[in-house]
Design brief:
Strand content: 15-25%
Number of strands: 14
Shape: elongated
Strand order of the largest sheet: 4-3-5-14-6
Largest sheet: 5 strands, mixed
Order of helices and strands: HHHEEHEHEEEEHEEEEHEHEEH
Structural class: alpha/beta
Number of helices: 9
């Protein structure tokens, strides 16, 4: 081979390898699929080896392609790291930060962290998606996500960003008037409970614990909802008993609009984690967001 592969060719090779798609790789590289295909074909010709097996539906590396990317991939990552470090030293973060969180955490972020972040970094914008279901942040193109620690994949870096929290059973004085106050989770069978639905369409079990022993309960009720703020409003209206995060119920408990029930059955759990893919160097926007998050808290 008389001519060495260029950096752009190796980057194109690594991007197709990562995404297993010429179309997706072309979008990431901001070139046309035909241009990308020509780059890879020219590289294969000069190397004298096929690098990818292609069909109309799939792209997979050949043994030669796998071996080449395995060797040059770390070198490209080191180069990207060096260039980012140079840019980080002279530029403020700019661009779009894509985040995903549950509706409860999303509400807390909008109230505190995000306004401070955008004020401090005016060249950044935030795309926040509130989603109850677990999201594959890599596949869906998110920079980071927020979830309970037990729900964070093991191959992600996780940062504990909130103090201990817990779920509480709450009801309005109007609902409780004339009714027997539940003393154990099993007593909820005598009440109209505001149920919550999973993204898959199933009803959540209410998870209780006493002396370290779990006690899940399948509650019954005439109303099923899928957003915490709606459950709170229904409880405030006297429609039944709800099971909601303490942090969202706290203002209504303080004002007396809601009462907390079964507290000894509702132990705290570690709280919320921010998680992101394990990269050597964080994107500047995410690094800046984490710095603001650590100061602001949740």
């Amino acid at each position: 081979m008389n001519e060495r592969p260029t950096l752009s060719e190796l980057t194109a090779l690594a991007t197709v390898y990562k995404l297993r798609s010429f179309r997706k790789a072309a979008d990431e590289l901001e070139i046309s699929p035909s241009t990308l295909s020509h780059i890879i074909r020219d590289l294969e010709t000069r190397l004298g080896a096929r690098l990818f097996n292609r069909t109309t539906r799939s792209v997979s590396p050949t043994e030669s392609g796998e071996r080449l990317v395995t060797r040059v991939g770390p070198l490209l990552l080191e180069l990207e790291t060096a260039l980012r470090e140079v840019n980080d030293a002279k530029d403020l973060p700019r661009g779009v930060l894509r985040l995903t969180a549950s509706d409860t955490v999303a509400m807390m972020l909008v109230e505190t962290v995000i306004p401070r972040f955008l004020q401090k970094y005016p060249e950044m914008s935030v795309d926040l998606v509130a989603e109850a279901a677990f999201v594959d942040i890599v596949a869906e193109g998110f920079d980071a996500g927020f979830r309970l620690g037990e729900a964070v994949p093991l191959d992600m870096i996780a940062i504990h960003v909130g103090g201990p929290s817990r779920m509480l059973v709450v009801a309005s004085p109007a609902y409780l008037h004339g009714r027997e106050i539940p003393a154990t989770p099993d007593d909820l069978a005598l009440h109209n409970c505001i149920r919550s639905r999973t993204p898959a369409g199933r009803n959540y079990r209410w998870e209780f614990e006493l002396a370290g022993r779990p006690h899940p309960v399948e509650v019954q009720g005439t109303l099923t909802l899928n957003r915490t703020e709606h459950m709170l409003k229904a409880a405030l209206s006297g429609m039944g008993i709800a099971f909601v995060p303490e942090i969202m119920a706290a203002p209504y408990l303080s004002s007396g609009q809601l009462s907390s029930l079964l507290e000894k059955w509702c132990p705290p759990y570690p709280g919320i984690y921010l998680y992101y893919p394990g990269r050597r160097l964080l994107p500047p926007g995410l690094k800046a967001f984490i710095d603001v998050l650590k100061v602001s808290g949740l």
